[in-house]
Amino acid sequence: MPVKAAAKKIDGEVTISYWVDSDGHPKDIKIVSAQPKDIFERETLHAVKNWCLTPTIERRTSVISFNNAS
To answer: What's the whole-model pTM score?
Structure first.
């Protein structure tokens, strides 16, 4: 969770699309949408680069939610 979002108790979600290479790493990661804009995108890209998934030949889409539970 980005510090700015946590301090302001902002929730949101980011939709991404990507390919999974033969080693299971996401490649060509693209932000499809983000609500609110300019808050969670960088954190999402950083986290997704560390995922390890089952390789596929089709582009995937995922939604990452950020919730500020108090």
So the answer is: 0.85
